[in-house]
């Protein structure tokens, strides 16, 4: 097994606020890793760095066998589009688009033509148990439904890595578990690596292992034991 | 990708549709205005060209075909009922005479041609008030090609060569001038089209500026949501270029639709435009037209500009995949923002006593200064808003004041943007009103019952080519007995004596008519101007003339001054009588008519200013309403949550009212002050006048503008109630 | 709840009289139920028998109140082992966990690390239960859920406590 993601001494400050102060982490391919830690400890920031959304001030990030912290904006965008998937807490669906268009969005942005993109998107609705909602707008979905649509969108491009930041944060525990079941099942089926930020132990329990982030550092054993 | 952009643009929910509609509408208005300005400029030029033939006396500029038989030609200015009339006396000497446009031949002695407007006046006016001025009979009507305007009053009167040769300013011509007055140095008939083009440009700027603000406001409507959407797209891997493309498609779509609509709107505006006679004469509708170049420029330029602007706007916000959720507070505006206003006013002040010599220099200096002040106000606005909000927050006793103050202090630019249009409107209003009221107070037309309106004078000025009538020339028979004529005075020509005026009049005449002014105590003869006008700043007392009362009757006549009751019949009858008695000299006129050129232009400008003010007030009001509604919409969640937690609606109302009314009032006060300061500086520098307090209409206008704005603020309250209902606490 | 180990832990701070031990125990771990003297002394006697404490006679022959107990190396080792080892992740462990944390703080031990170790153990157990739930039937799932929720409650407590360690340390070691 080779590392899907690796962070070495990653540091990042927002103005005066240091969010990460030398975080080290290795995530093996196909592994599901839960990132835990107190609020404000830098979990989301770490995830954003790993996903190429933020560029660290110092340190290196390697993803899928390539160094990504020195890529430019457009290259990182393409990496996200083609190799990564995302599921966040809420507010990630484009409200103007229907559910199926939202799911197809990464494909459309990647240049897939409209019809095939929508066809591929629709397959996911059955798989995630949300068929019938294809034409709804995000405002017309419940939180759990929206989250499944977001999951479908995260998975539709068959990403190598799925990044999830509090994917169940806005859901009740039962719905949250359903979403987590689907997430883990789908990721395992696709062989995707998952980085899962959560503060809920029951969500973290879906992962293969967990790491702790505290004060901008990874404090648990950084390598899978 | 373009398709995705279009799809997003048209399905963006109600707020996005509203945004599109508003931007499109504003662009449409702007495009229509721009087209109107182009059409106006074209019309001014076309109209000017229509004046060309009246300048035919300037023989070196003549370009028409050479005629074999030279014609006698004398152009004079006449008036009817306060309207200017051009009268050309011509004398044909053979079959091949030069022919002006709109006519097939020159009239023979005893014939005359008139313009259609004059023809209808002739038909509806008693002959002793108008028709008797023209010897002979009307044989035709001048065609449109010879008219500057459908309302032009023109008479081309056929006389014998001897008769014409005796007229003041007569020449002989073989060709008609056909170049525009602006390309011909001696051609004084026509409009100063450069100046008018400049004024139109200022008008356009004064209107387009608030429109641009409005477009800016409308674009920011639901901007947070739009940015959030872009952020969501960036997250799943849209590159910055793709986002830019989508945003560009969106705004270009709105601009393109707006441009089309603007072209559709233009014909309507054009119909109204020919009523605004800013050259003093109505335009032929056909002259108010666009060139292909204009059409192309606007039709392609506006959407292109919108695309460029969209790009520039996006470059500034920089949408990251994490979007707007994590936005740093913008830096507070600094005090340097006050500099441009100060610079503008200083510039104007600097030119006091340093007035540039050329008209161009003046326009650049003054318009430049006023423009700088205007832009300076826009720059200073956020700072002023912040200053106001600080005061508000410091005085805050209740939560509403605190929230409003904090929000304004947090983003004063947004708070200011809502009222910026209004501020500009107020500034323009104040400058225009200040300048025009003052000029009119010094130089404007006066109403019936004042000497300048009622008194008709005919004068001879030997140093300007006039031949003084002999000392024994009687007052024309029937003049004193004309109904409405109160008296006829004779001013004698005393020649050039020291610095005194050339006229002399017995002091007894003045004593009978105290409104004309007084002799100094003890004097018998007063030194006066031929038309008995007083200099602008003159006192009521004339200087004494060195002539004695006994010498007066032996002096040649300088002028006859007919004192009337101001009625049209009295004035025009007297004028007609004088013209038939003295057919070779300058025609009689009242002081008002003499000045009418300038005064009428002023009145036109005032009308233009009114249009600008009303239009920009309306646009500014729309801006305010849109940004208020947008502001409420943007914050409906927090407001809804506040309401859920028990904050009363009245408290929220107070927040909204305060956060728009405070910048509104703060900025209005500054705009009005700056406007009048600029006007005062301009008046002092250019004309050496003092600023006069504006008339009632100004206060009404400003009061109305502010009242409407406050009304608009109040009108958003139902919206506030609706969008902060409990259902809004739901997340989407 | 392990009274002998708790008393040993208290003794590791400093040699103490039986009475002091009882008072501290009641204050920190009694939860409203005082430890009977009999239990204190019989426990201490057993600890002495096992060589985990010895009597330090300051003023010999003056009755039990004059005796101070001192922890031996053996006793200290036992305390150390006990603190370092995670508690078996079963529900209703708060009191043990709590005692360990307070003592660790009193003894200037790395309480945070204990908590982390505990968290890992809890999470590992939760993973097993989650796996069981995902692969098993409904009944297994429901049973697993019961365990999961209780473990989660523990974990929450662990998180809260680690967030408040500094405050607690200040109270425990005045
Ligand atoms: N855009 C930003 N600007 C300024 N500070 C930021 C920004 N984003 C994060 N921070 C700060 O960086 C630190 C880490 O933030 P981060 O969002 O990574 O925490 P987290 O572990 O995800 O917390 P939570 O569990 O509450 O989501 C915090 O102190 C936060 O205030
Ligand atoms: Mg976070």
Task: Sum up the structure in keywords.
heterotrimer; A: 225 residues; alpha/beta; Rossmann fold; 4-stranded antiparallel sheet; 7 helices; C: 174 residues; mainly alpha; Arc Repressor Mutant, subunit A; 3-stranded antiparallel sheet; 8 helices; 69% helix; binds adenosine-5'-triphosphate; binds magnesium ion
Inertia-based shape of chain A = globular
Count of DSSP H/I helices of chain A: 7
Strand residues, percent of chain C: 5-15%
The run of helices and strands of chain A is EEEHEEHEHHHEHEHEE
How would you classify the helix and strand content of chain C by structural class? mainly alpha
- Sheet having the most strands of chain C: 3 strands, antiparallel
Low-confidence stretches of chain A: none
**Per CATH, which architecture of the largest domain in chain C?**
Orthogonal Bundle
* Count of runs of 4 or more consecutive helical residues of chain C: 8
Strand order of the largest sheet of chain C: 1-3-2
Give a written overview of the molecule:
The complex is a heterotrimer of chains A (about 220), B (about 725) and C (about 170). Chain A has helices at about 45-50, 75-85, 100-110, 115-125, 145-155, 175-190, 200-205, and strands at about 5-15, 15-30, 30-35, 60-65, 65, 85, 160-165, 195, 210-215, 215-220. By secondary structure, chain A is of the alpha/beta class. Chain A has a domain at about 5-90 and about 160-220: P-loop containing nucleotide triphosphate hydrolases (Rossmann fold). A 6-stranded mixed sheet of chain A has the order 6-7-8-3-9-10, sandwiched between helices. In chain A, strands 2-1-4-5 form a 4-stranded antiparallel sheet, with helices on one face. In chain A, β9 (about 210-215) and β10 form a beta hairpin. In chain A, about 55% of the residues are buried. The mean pLDDT of chain A is about 85. With about 725 residues, chain B is of the alpha+beta class. Chain B is elongated. Among the domains of chain B are: about 1-50 and about 195-330, no CATH class; about 55-185, no CATH class; about 450-565, no CATH class. In chain B, β3 (about 110-115), α3 (about 115-125) and β4 (about 135-140) form a beta-alpha-beta unit. Helices cover about 55% and strands about 10% of the residues of chain B. In chain C, α1 packs parallel to α5 (about 95-105), α5 (about 95-105) runs antiparallel to α6 (about 110-135) and α6 packs antiparallel against α7 (about 140-165). Chain C is built from 8 helices and 3 strands, in the order αβααββααααα. Chain C is mainly α and about 170 residues long. Classes of the chains: A alpha/beta (about 220), B alpha+beta (about 725), C mainly alpha (about 170). Chains in contact: A-B, A-C. The interface of A and B includes residues 82, 105 and 170 of A. Bound molecules: adenosine-5'-triphosphate (ATP) and magnesium ion (MG). The site of adenosine-5'-triphosphate has 12 residues of chain A, from β2 and α1. The site of magnesium ion has 3 residues of chain A, from α1.
């Amino acid at each position: 097994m080779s590392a899907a993601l690796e962070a070495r001494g990653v540091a990042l400050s927002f103005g005066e606020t240091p969010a990460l102060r030398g975080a080290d982490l290795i995530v093996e391919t196909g592994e599901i890793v839960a990132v835990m830690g107190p609020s404000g400890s830098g979990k989301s920031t770490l995830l954003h760095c790993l996903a190429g959304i933020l560029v660290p001030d110092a340190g290196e990030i390697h993803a899928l066998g390539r160094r990504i912290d020195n890529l430019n904006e457009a290259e990182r965008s393409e990496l996200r589009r083609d190799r990564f998937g995302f599921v966040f807490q809420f507010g990630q669906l484009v409200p103007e688009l229907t559910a199926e268009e939202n799911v197809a969005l990464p494909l459309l942005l990647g240049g897939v033509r409209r019809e095939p993109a929508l066809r591929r998107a629709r397959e996911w609705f059955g798989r995630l148990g949300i068929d019938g909602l294809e034409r709804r707008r995000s405002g017309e979905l419940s939180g759990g439904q929206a989250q499944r649509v977001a999951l479908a969108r995260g998975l539709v491009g068959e990403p190598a890595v799925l990044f999830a930041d509090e994917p169940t944060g806005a859901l009740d525990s039962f719905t949250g578990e359903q979403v987590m079941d689907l997430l883990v099942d789908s990721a395992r089926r696709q062989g995707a690596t998952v980085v899962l930020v959560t503060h809920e132990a029951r969500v973290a329990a879906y992962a293969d292992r967990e790491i702790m982030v505290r004060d901008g550092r990874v404090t648990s054993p950084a390598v899978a034991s | 990708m373009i398709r995705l952009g279009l799809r997003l643009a048209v399905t963006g929910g109600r707020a996005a549709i509203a945004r599109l509609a508003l931007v499109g509408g504003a662009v449409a208005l702007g495009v229509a205005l721009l087209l109107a300005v182009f059409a106006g400029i074209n019309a001014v030029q076309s109209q000017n060209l229509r004046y060309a033939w009246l300048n035919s006396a300037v023989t070196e500029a003549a370009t028409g075909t050479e005629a074999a038989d030279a014609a006698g030609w004398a152009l004079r200015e006449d008036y009817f009922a306060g309207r200017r009339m051009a009268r050309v006396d011509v004398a044909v000497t053979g079959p091949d005479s030069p022919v002006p446009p709109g006519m097939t031949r020159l009239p023979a002695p005893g014939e005359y041609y008139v313009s259609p407007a004059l023809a209808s006046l002739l038909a509806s006016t008693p002959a002793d008030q108008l028709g008797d001025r023209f010897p002979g009979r009307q044989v035709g009507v001048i065609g449109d090609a010879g008219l500057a305007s459908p309302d032009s009053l023109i008479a081309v009167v056929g006389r014998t060569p001897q008769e014409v040769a005796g007229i003041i300013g007569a020449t002989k011509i073989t060709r008609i001038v056909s170049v525009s007055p602006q390309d011909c140095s001696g051609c004084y008939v026509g409009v100063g089209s450069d100046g008018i083009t400049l004024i139109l440009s200022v008008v356009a700027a004064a209107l387009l500026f608030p429109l641009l603000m409005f477009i800016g406001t409308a674009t920011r409507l639901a901007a947070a949501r739009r940015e959030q959407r872009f952020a969501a797209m960036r997250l799943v891997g849209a590159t910055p270029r793709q986002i830019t493309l989508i945003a560009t498609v969106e705004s270009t779509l709105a601009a393109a639709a707006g441009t089309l609509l603007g072209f559709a709107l233009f014909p309507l505006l054009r119909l109204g435009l020919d009523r605004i006679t800013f050259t003093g004469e109505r335009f032929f509708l056909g002259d108010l037209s666009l060139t292909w170049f204009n059409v192309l420029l606007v039709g392609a330029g506006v959407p292109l500009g919108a695309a460029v602007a969209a790009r520039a706007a996006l470059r500034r916000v920089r949408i990251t995949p994490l979007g707007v959720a994590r936005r740093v507070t913008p830096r507070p505006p600094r005090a340097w923002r006050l500099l441009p206003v100060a610079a503008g006013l200083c510039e104007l002040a600097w030119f006091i006593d340093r007035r540039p010599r050329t008209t161009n220099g003046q326009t650049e200096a003054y318009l430049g200064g006023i423009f700088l002040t205007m832009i300076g106000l826009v720059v200073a606005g956020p700072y002023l808003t912040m200053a106001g909000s600080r005061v508000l927050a410091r005085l805050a006793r209740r939560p509403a004041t605190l929230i409003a103050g904090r929000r304004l202090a947090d983003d004063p630019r947004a708070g200011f943007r809502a009222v910026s249009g209004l501020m500009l409107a107020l500034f323009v209003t104040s400058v225009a009103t200040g300048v025009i009221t003052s000029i009119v107070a010094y130089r404007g037309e006066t109403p019936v019952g004042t000497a300048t309106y009622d008194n008709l004078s005919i004068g001879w000025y030997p140093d300007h080519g006039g031949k003084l009538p002999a000392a024994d020339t009687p007052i024309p028979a029937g003049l004193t007995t004309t109904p409405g004529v109160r008296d006829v005075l004779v001013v004698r020509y005393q020649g050039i004596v020291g610095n005194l005026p050339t006229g002399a009049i017995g002091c007894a005449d003045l004593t009978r008519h105290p409104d004309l002014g007084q002799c100094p105590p003890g004097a018998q003869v007063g030194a006066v101007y031929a038309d008995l006008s007083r200099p602008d700043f003159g006192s009521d007392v004339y200087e004494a003339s060195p002539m004695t009362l006994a010498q007066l009757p032996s002096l040649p006549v300088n002028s006859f001054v007919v004192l009337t009751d101001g009625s049209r019949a009295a004035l025009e009858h007297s004028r007609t009588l004088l013209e038939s008695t003295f057919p070779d000299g300058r025609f009689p006129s009242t002081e008002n008519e003499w000045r009418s050129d300038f005064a009428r232009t002023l009145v036109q400008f005032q009308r233009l200013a009114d249009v600008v003010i009303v239009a920009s007030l309306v646009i500014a009001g729309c801006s305010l309403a849109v940004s208020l509604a947008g502001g409420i919409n943007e914050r409906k969640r927090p407001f809804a949550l506040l309401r859920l937690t028990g904050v009363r609606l009245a408290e929220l109302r107070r927040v909204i009212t305060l956060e728009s009314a405070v910048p509104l009032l703060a900025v209005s006060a500054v705009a009005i002050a700056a406007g009048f300061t600029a006007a005062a500086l301009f008046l002092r520098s250019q004309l050496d006048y003092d600023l006069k307090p504006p008339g009632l209409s100004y206060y009404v206008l400003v009061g109305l503008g502010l009242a409407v704005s406050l009304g608009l603020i109040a009108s958003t309250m139902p919206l506030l109630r609706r969008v902060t209902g409990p259902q809004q606490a739901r997340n989407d | 709840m392990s009274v002998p180990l708790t008393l040993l832990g208290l003794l590791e701070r400093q040699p103490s009289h039986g009475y002091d031990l009882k008072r501290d125990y009641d204050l920190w771990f009694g939860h409203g139920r005082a430890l009977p003297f009999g239990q204190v002394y019989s426990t201490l006697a057993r600890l002495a028998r096992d060589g985990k404490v010895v009597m330090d006679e300051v003023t010999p022959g003056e009755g039990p109140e004059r005796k101070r107990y001192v922890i031996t190396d053996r006793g200290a080792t036992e305390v150390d082992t006990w603190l370092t080892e995670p508690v078996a992740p079963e529900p209703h462990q708060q009191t043990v966990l709590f005692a360990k944390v307070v003592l660790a703080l009193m003894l200037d031990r790395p309480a945070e690390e204990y908590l982390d170790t505990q968290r890992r153990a809890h999470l590992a157990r939760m993973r097993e239960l989650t796996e069981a739930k995902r692969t098993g039937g409904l009944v297994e799932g429901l049973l697993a859920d019961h365990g999961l929720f209780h473990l989660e409650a523990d974990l929450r407590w662990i998180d809260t406590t680690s967030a408040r360690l500094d405050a607690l340390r200040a109270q425990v070691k005045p």
